Amino acid sequence: MLSKTDGLFRKMRHWGVSCTAGVMMALPVKTMAQVKMSPAKIDALKTELVKEIDSQQKFTQEMVDMVFSFGELGFQEVETSKYLTDILKKNGFTIEQGIAGIPTAWTAKWGSGKPLIAVGSDIDCIPKASQKPGVAYHDPIIEGAPGHGEGHNSGQPLNITAVLALKKIMEREKIPGTIMLWPGVAEEQLGTKAYYVRDGFFKNVDACIFTHVANNLSVSYGDGGNNGMVSVQFNFEGQASHAGAAPWRGKSALDAVELMNIGWNFHREHMETTQRSHYVIKDGGDQPNVVPSKASVWYYFRERTYPKITQMFKDGIRIAEGAAQMTETKMTYEVLGSAWPGHFNQAIAETMYENIKRVGLPKWSEDDQILAKAAQKEMQNPEGGALETNGLATTLSQLSKPSATPNTGGGGSDDIADISWNLPTVVLRYPANIPGLPGHHWANAIAMATPIAHKGVTAGAKVEAMTLLDLLVKPEVLRNAWEYFNNVQTKDVKYKALISDTDKPAIHLNEKIMSEYRPEMKKYYYDPTKYTTYLEQLGIKYPTVREAAGEGK
Asked: Which residues form the Peptidase M20 dimerisation domain (predicted)?
């Protein structure tokens, strides 16, 4: 049970009171005075939202296709951010660029007063995931280039479609409240959301809806079952020398990297099954006949709780220090990203699920299903695993609730979790991709600028717009959301950032890759003034699948 002091602190933070270094300072905020409407009025407005979003399908499709064509990696989402903020600026939003010291990060606000609702989604893509949309086998637009092999091109178009539809109703009905859109920059590196929180951009926000691409319409609450994570690069510095003539004069930084990796791999034997850790060598030297004076290795340390994550981080530092001692090199490290394990809000999730049931899944065409089944067949599971060839989902997901059995299998991470531990948050998953694909892979780009993605984004926008309306005109939803946040979610677990006060976003990441590929990628940016869809611009017949003989059809 919360102490009186803890409960007061939670309420003060919700009301706009900050507590820093033990000194409490009241900040000016507007009293929340929500409009309360009758169920019949709300129902009529939701019907209007659906019609408005349906009427904007061409606008939605253009946004989805445009961001897909940019294909920008984390921290380098320059074209994407400019395109999206230009749309919002033209629609009356106030833009703040470069938040938290991140050039491609921003907020876009519209409205006045409380409640303040944040609406976010990721915008970065995956290395080496370039793929022609609508083609059910590997066929890159540019060989080796990055691409949207997860589907982050679709979330912000969904948000913008939903919010602009809602904005019309808020203006006409004089509904008070403020909407703040924001991007998940460099989510694939878990690189930014903890900095947004640390630097106060969610301090007075009352609730957050986040959207993420999936293969069904769904939402969940409670412990999401994922791991939290710290992303760390270890840098070693030694002494160069001629590797053939005078190797004894060298101190190999690469030896230190290899010894650290050996030490960590032996350490795995004594770690719990929930841990997930992996690394890539970012710098292994220049050429074999020069003892490497510099080398670096990049680690992800994942676990299920804050104490276990921080312990892994400490173990990594200890092993790196040992490798440096053995090789007489110097070691430094830098945090490149972090994420908490996720926990999402019950009251908002239950409200959203009622809207999911009202919207339902899109009506897939025969061509949509042909593409999906062909892609599933192309990416069949290895070693006799169950082969998913059932096409796109036709049965709606159930509301996902916390499991009675804690997850012990480990898994992925998402830094939306840091926001979820600071205010009531849910993730709306929408059906813009194909079930049964590997994830973080070119295959996951197959659907992302096709009618599958366009329909899934439209369905998701309807759910989000309805849920935002509920948050604005049903005061009990936010009241129950904060009750759950204060007295269930954070009753025993308190958020502590995995980044320090002096850590800085790793905005240099992916600069080299994008500088190499961007000039060629620009030739393929979508031009909606000339082409109805990106498929048309690329000259792709939808769907394109393999024939039995193995040739494209």
From this structure: 225-303
Which residue in the block uniquely carries the two structure tokens 């890159």? 140
What is the per-residue pLDDT across 292-327, written as a single tens digit (0 to 9) for each?
999 999 999 999 999 999 999 999 999 999 999 999
How far, in whole angstroms, is CA 206 from its chain's centroid? 20
Angstrom distance (rounded) from CA 105 to CA 415:
15
CA dihedral 285, 289, 293, 294 (to 10 degrees): 0
Which H helix or E strand runs over 279? strand 276-283
Q: With beta carbons less than 8 A apart as the criterion, state whether 179 and 110 touch.
A: yes
Euclidean distance between CA atoms 62 and 454, whole angstroms: 9
DSSP 543: S
Angstrom distance (rounded) from CA 468 to CA 458: 15
Q: Which residues in the chain show pLDDT less than 70?
A: 1-33, 381-389, 404-410, 548-553
| Exposure class string for 128-149: b at 16+ Cβ within 10 A, else e | bbbbbbbbbbebbbeeebbbbb
Interacting residues of 266 by C-beta distance below 8 A, sequence separation 6+: none
Q: How far is CA 220 from CA 217, 344, 353, 415, in A?
A: 11, 7, 9, 16
Residues 461-476: b if buried by 16+ CB within 10 A, e if exposed: bbbbbbbbbbbbbbee
Q: Which amino acid is at 287?
A: Q
Distance CA 295, CA 23 (A): 44
- Is residue 121 a contact partner of residue 155, using CB atoms and an 8 Å limit? yes
Contact 302, 244 (CB under 8 A): no
CB-CB contact of 344 with 417 (8 Å): no
Whether 220 and 330 have beta carbons less than 8 Å apart is answered as no
Give the pair of three-digit tokens for residue 342. Answer: 């996720």
Strand order in the sheet with 294-303: 276-283, 294-303, 228-237, 330-339
pLDDT at 225: 84
Please count the other Cβ atoms lying within 10 Å of the Cβ belonging to residue 171.
12
**Residue 201's Cα: distance from chain center in Å?**
17
Q: How many helices (H) and strands (E) does the chain have?
A: 15, 14
Instruction: Report how far residue 367's alpha carbon sits from residue 369's, in angstroms, rounded to the nearest whole number.
Output: 5
Cβ burial 175-184 (10 Å sphere, 16+ → b, else e): bbbbbbbbbb
- Phi-psi region for residue 222, left (φ > 0), alpha (ψ -120 to 50) or beta? left
SS3 487: helix
3-state secondary structure of 164: helix
Return d(Cα 248, Cα 35) in angstroms, integer. Answer: 77
Give the pLDDT confidence of 153-210 residue by residue, as tens digits: 999 999 999 999 999 999 999 999 999 999 999 999 999 999 999 999 999 999 999 9
Supply 550's token pair: 């193995």
Separation CA 212–CA 427 (nearest Å): 7
Q: Which residue, 78, 63, 68, is CA-closest to 442? A: 68
- Edge to edge, the sheet with strand 106-112 lists 94-97, 106-112, 177-184, 116-122, 207-214, 425-431
